Amino acid sequence: MRLIGVDVGGTFTDLVLADTGTGRSVIHKVSSTNADPSIGVTQGVVELCARAGIAPAAVDQVLHGTTIATNAVLEHRGAVTGMITTRGYRDVLHIGRHQRPEHYSIQQQIPWQSRPLVKRRHRHVVTERLVPPRGEVLVPLDEAEVRAAARALKADGVEAIAICFLFSYLNPAHELRARAIVQEEYPEAFVTTSAEVAPQFREFERFTTAAMNAFVGPRVRDYVSRLAGRLKEAGVSGDLQVMGSTGGVASVAMVAEQPVLTMLSGPAAGVLGGAWAGALSGRNDLITFDIGGTSADIAIISGGRFGEASARDTWIAGFPLLVPMIDIHTIGAGGGSIARRDAGGAFRVGPQSAGAQPGPAGYGRGGQRPTVTDANIVLGRLDPENFLGGAMALDVAAARRVVGAFADELGLTPEAAALGILTIVNANMANAIRSRTVQKGIDPRGYALVAFGGAGPLQAVEVARMLEGREVLVPPHPGITSAMGLLTTDLSADAVRTCFQLSTALDLPRIADDFAAMEAQIIARFAADALPVETARFTRAADLRYAGQGYELRVAFPADEMADASGLLARFHAQHKAEYGHAFPERPVEIVNLRLTGAIPRPHLGAPPPRAGGSLEEATVRVARVVFGTPAAPEPHETPFLRRELLPVGQPIPGPAIVLQTDSTTVVPPGCTLTAEAGGNLLIAL
Fold first, then answer.
1. 111 lies in the same domain as 188
2. Per the domain annotation, does 619 fall within a domain?
3. Closest CA to 395 of 365, 362, 366
4. Do 120 and 199 fall within a single domain?
5. Are residues 119 and 199 located together in one domain of the fold?
6. Whose CA, among 402, 424, 553, 659, lies 20 to 30 Å from 371?
7. Residue 121's domain is classified under what CATH number?
C-alpha cells in the first residue's frame, strides 16, 4: 500500500510517502497556508506524488495530523457557542473548582472566566434531574423548555450548542432527547452532548470538554470536509484519516463529531515517530524530544509504551479536558525563543518567541531580538550556505548584531552570550524532562533521548549531558518525524464509563457487563464507517484510587481478570508506590472509571532500506571554527561539517562534528562519538 503522512506546522507542512510493499519512502516540505491549511496540504500531496513518480489516484490512504482544533482554542477563535444545562447549574463553567492556575495570586487571569468558551447569556437552563447510582429519573425532562432554549440560541446567532446535564454520565437519555429536540428546531447548528464526549463524573471538567467540542466543532468539521473535497478534486481517491490525541487515527466522520479528540494531534504523531525511530536502534526506553520554532514537546516511552495523561494533568490553553491523551509536556522553548533580561535583571530565554515572521534575525526577515537560532549561528553551528539544504541563506551579520548588542548589555563577548543563551534554554528543557521522569520515579539515565523537529538535534546532546544520559538518537528525517509517526499507528476509538465500586464490595459481573456495552459501542462506531470490525482488538483499563482520594491512577485491567480483581489491585498499589513513593495495601480501593480502547490494524511504515553510506572524506563539506564550552570559557574547535547521506555506516566518528541534512542540523560536541547506523538513525554516544 502507498501511504502519505501529512503534518501541518505553523511554518511548514511536512509530508512523507511510504510504500509498504517496497519499503521506499519519499519526503517533501511545502509552506503552510495558515488561512486555509487544506490548500497547502493538497498542494503538498500533489507535489509529493509527482516527486515519487506516481499518480495521486495510486495513494491508498492519507493520514493527517492537524492543529486546527488546538489553534482555535489557543487563539480563542471558535464558534459562537451556547449551552443547555440542568436548572441551577448555569454557572458551573464559570465557577470551576477550588484550584486556580496560581494558588496565591489575587490578580491572576483565570482562563474559564476571562475568556469563557460559552458566554453567560448563551447558557440556558431546563428542568430535569437524574440521580445516582444508576441514573434513575427523579424529575422528567421539560421538553418545552428545551425547545424554547433552542429557539432563543438560534435567534442569538449561536453556531454550536453543548448539552450538559448533571448526571448524564450515568444515564444519557435526557441529553439524547434534548439533542433530538435541538436538531429539530435548529438543524444547522453543531450539537454535542457531554455524555457522548466525556461520560464521566466531575461536572466542571465534563461540561468544559463538551463546550470545547462545540467551540471547535464547526471549524474542524468544515476543515476536514474541505480537505477531503480538495484531495478528491486533485485525484486522491484513498481514505483520509486524522490523528487523535491518543496516538490512533480516526475517520473523517468520527473527527467531525468529536473534534476535541484531536487536540494533541500533531504532538501525538511525533511521539509515535520517536518510538518508531527508537525501534530502528532496538531501544524501547525513550525520551522523545521534539523542538520546533516556539516550543518543545517531551514524552516518555517505557518498555515501548507511552503514558496517558491523567485527569489532573490534561489541560489545553488553561482549560481542563476529560478526553484520553498521550502524556506530552510542552514548554515554551524552541529555535525562535527570545533571550532577554527580565525586570529584575535576570537572564531569561523564552517563552516569548520570534515566530515565523519576522523570525530570528539570522533569517534575514527583519528580526531584531536575539534568539536561540541566532546564538547557534554566532557559535558557527549552522552552516549559512547549507541551511535547509541550501534553500535559505542565513544572515550571519544580522545574528551577530543582535547577539552582540545583548552581549554588550550583559558585559560579555558575543560568544559567551550565545553560549549563555543555549545553556539557559537547554537547562529549561532538561528541567522539563526531570519533571516527567525523576519526579515520577523514572531514572532518565537509562533512557535514550530521541531528538527531532527542526531544532531538536541542535540541542539534544547538551540536554542529555545535563540529564547524565548515555546516548542520543536522531531519526532518519528529524524534521518530518511527526509526519512519519502518522504512518505507524492503527485506527482507534475509546469508550469510558464511570463505575464507582469499592474493592470491599466489587460487583465483577456488572463490570463485565459495562465492558461488553462499551465494546458494542465501539464496534457500532467502526461499523458506521464501514471498517472491518472483525479485526478489532480491545485493551481494557480502569481508573483507581484509595477511598477518599481526589484523583485516580490508570491501571491495566485485562479481560481474563474479570473473575478476580486481585491482580488489578496489586498493580494499583505498585503504581501508586512508583508515582508517589508510598502505598497502602490495607486500605480499600475504589474503581472510578472503566476504559476500553478498540483498534483496527492498518498497514504501517516499515524500516527504511539499509543505508550504503560513503566515506568520511566524501561526507566532509568543509572544516570551520565552531565554539563549544561554557559562557565562562568558550572553546573554539576546528569542526568538520558532514553530509548525512554520505556518512560511512557503522564507523564511529569522534566529535566535534556538525551533520547537515535538508530538514535539520545535528550538533556533536567534543567528547561524543557519532555513528551512522545501517537502520537509518544517527547514534551519538555521550
1. yes
2. no
3. 362
4. yes
5. yes
6. 659
7. 3.40.50
Mean pLDDT over the full length of the chain: 93
Contact between 151 and 136 under an 8 Å Cβ cutoff? The reply is: no
- One-letter identity of residue 4: I
User: Can you tell me the mean pLDDT for 184-199?
Assistant: 96
Cis peptide before 358, with omega less than 30 degrees from 0? yes
The pairing of strands 491-502 and 471-474 is unpaired
**Concatenated DSSP letters of 616-655:** HHHHEEEEEEEEEEETTEEEEEEEEEEEGGGSPBT--EES
Q: Which of 181, 216, 251 is the last residue of a domain?
A: 216
Q: What is the CATH number of the domain that holds 42?
A: 3.30.420.40
In a 13 Å sphere around the CA of 86, the CA atoms on its Cβ side amount to: 20
Phi (first) and psi of residue 203, to 5 degrees = -65, -35
How far apart are alpha carbons 247 and 264 in whole angstroms? 9
Q: Is residue 48 part of a domain?
A: yes
Within 10 Å of residue 262's Cβ, how many Cβ atoms?
27
Res 471: pLDDT: 97
CA pair distance 159, 276, nearest whole angstrom: 41
d(C-alpha 563, C-alpha 180), whole Å? 39
Is 649 in contact with 615 (CB distance < 8 Å)? no
Distance CA 669, CA 451 (A): 15
Tell me what pLDDT residue 135 has.
93
Query: Distance between CA 590 and CA 432 in Å, rounded?
Result: 32
Residue 249 sits in which domain range? 2-72+222-262
In contact, 437 and 444? CB cutoff 8 Å: yes
Domain count, the chain: 5
What is the rounded CA–CA span in Å between residue 86 and residue 225? 33
Of the candidates 319, 344, 406, 326, which has an alpha carbon nearest to the alpha carbon of residue 371? Answer: 406
**Digit-coded pLDDT (tens) for 116-151:** 999 999 999 999 999 998 899 999 999 999 999 999
In a domain, 548, yes or no: yes
DSSP state of 387: B
Query: Is residue 189 located within the same domain as residue 290?
Result: no
Shared-domain flag, residues 40 and 167: no
3 state DSSP class of 443: coil
The reply to whether 636 falls in a domain is: no
| CA–CA dist 320, 255 (Å, integer) | 20
Cβ(260)–Cβ(475) under 8 Å?
no
Please give the pLDDT value at position 35: 85
Identify whether residues 499 and 551 lie together within a single domain. yes
pTM above 0.70, yes or no: yes
What nine digits make up the cell of 567?
Answer: 491482580
Residue whose C-alpha cell is 435541538: 182
How far are the Cα atoms of 84, 139, 200, 307, 347 from residue 135, in angstroms, in the given order? 19, 11, 13, 32, 56
